[in-house]
Amino acid sequence: MKLSGPEYFGSGETLVKEGNAAVLEQPYSQRVGGYADVMKPLADFVTAILLLLITLPVMLLSAILIKLDSKGPVIFKQERYGKNGVKFNIYKFRTMRTDAPKYGLSPTTSHDPRITRLGRILRKTSLDELPQLLNIIKGDMSFIGPRPEMKRIVEECYTDLERRRFLVKPGITGLWQVSEARKEPIHHNLQYDFHYISNVSMKMDITIIFKTIGVMIKSNTF
């Protein structure tokens, strides 16, 4: 089944979905050059520093409230795979109970008993993602890119095809996250990641940022 690129980006490149996988019909090539190699990493670093300074009061307040709300650490750390298959620890504010399985399925409802009272608010507002600014400053992540995959899933399920997602840094948001397909598992919609990797540009990143803001405003995630 052929799938056209996301409707608001159209690159002329055709994607083919085969079962639960997606491949590029044309020979795969990574977009390299001034923006992807220089401007994008620099913009990520500078923007992350500025946002960290601006949101520091919110982060400190969130940390205090997390400690008051439930037992356990303020920061949730989990090993993920990044660019070139290098593993790193992703940071988030803890939103679930400490006895919740670390690599369990993500909650799909606000009534999930694993989520703490404050965690419901943090997840609803995406404030739990703020510590990932540190991942960007460290160079582990970008603002925009494929979502970083869990170690267990990569080591148990990934083929050479899925590992193409490691050609770029993982991101906090991305093409899949702002599409209607975000309601389905990412491994069923890899064409969005491949499309982004092959066609990354400043225009695409700016569009994704604005669409991310729209998704956050309308979000019904928990």
Give a written overview of the molecule.
By secondary structure, the protein is α+β, with helices and mostly antiparallel strands. It has six helices and eight strands; from the N terminus they run βββαββααββαβαα. It has helices at residues 34-69, 117-125, 132-138, 151-157, 191-199, 202-218; strands at 2-3, 15-18, 21-24, 75-81, 87-93, 142-144, 149-150, 171-173. It has a three-stranded antiparallel beta sheet with strand order 1-2-3, covered by helices on one side. Helix 1 runs antiparallel to helix 2 and helix 1 packs antiparallel against helix 3. The chain is globular and about 45 Å long. Mean pLDDT is 82; it is low at 1-30.
